[in-house]
Design goal:
- By secondary structure, the protein is α+β, with helices and mostly antiparallel strands.
- The protein folds into two domains: 62 residues, Orthogonal Bundle (Arc Repressor Mutant, subunit A); 67 residues, Nucleotidyltransferase, domain 5 (2-Layer Sandwich), CATH 3.30.420.
- Helix content is 26%, strand content 22%.
- β5 and β6 form a beta hairpin.
- The radius of gyration is 27 Å and the shape is elongated.
Length: 167
């Protein structure tokens, strides 16, 4: 599935032809014509070339973006297979800490059985645990704790037996 074009590429106070709008958005001109004919993009189609105001084009693209975007509840995870927010199967999930303040919530989708993930804040974990059962997995210690200083090895301290002699 192609990415939606960004409304930020359109200037609000400019009037575009179909070709100019398609070029600014990186789309084919037939795509813009289809948006006008079928999907509700407002344009002046009384004369050729068809004219589209920048505000109408920005509004249309912003509406399409908001229609695709969905807001998840804290205990829901988005399944890419089902293309919808899902509550984990059996209300079970695993939490693995990835950074000091965030972690990954992993569960199974109840509809298709695929693995679903969501990055959450550590502070939200107790709120999520009120809705579903979360098992905290052991985090990788080198990712979570930064208390140990890194070991630096210098060439002077290495044994010189591995160095080739220069002639």
């Amino acid at each position: 599935m192609a990415r939606l074009p960004s409304p930020n590429k359109i200037k609000t106070h400019r009037i575009y032809t179909v070709f100019e709008a398609a070029e600014a958005l990186g789309r084919h001109r037939q795509t813009v014509i289809r948006w006008i004919k079928n999907k509700g993009l407002l344009a002046d189609t009384r004369h050729r070339p068809w004219l589209i105001t920048g505000t109408d084009l920005k509004t249309y693209l912003g509406y399409r973006r908001e229609k695709v975007r969905c807001k998840l509840a804290l205990h829901h995870l988005y399944c890419l297979g089902c293309k919808s927010p899902q509550e984990p199967a059996g209300k079970f999930a695993d939490y693995t800490q990835k950074a000091p303040s965030t972690g990954m919530l992993t569960a199974l989708c109840p509809m298709c059985g695929s693995v679903i993930n969501k990055i959450i804040r550590r502070a939200d974990l107790e709120t999520i645990r009120a809705k579903i059962e979360v098992t905290i997995q052991q985090a990788d210690p080198r990712i979570v704790s930064h208390t140990d200083a890194p070991l630096n090895v210098t060439l002077e301290s290495e044994d010189q037996s591995n160095v080739k002699a220069r002639f």
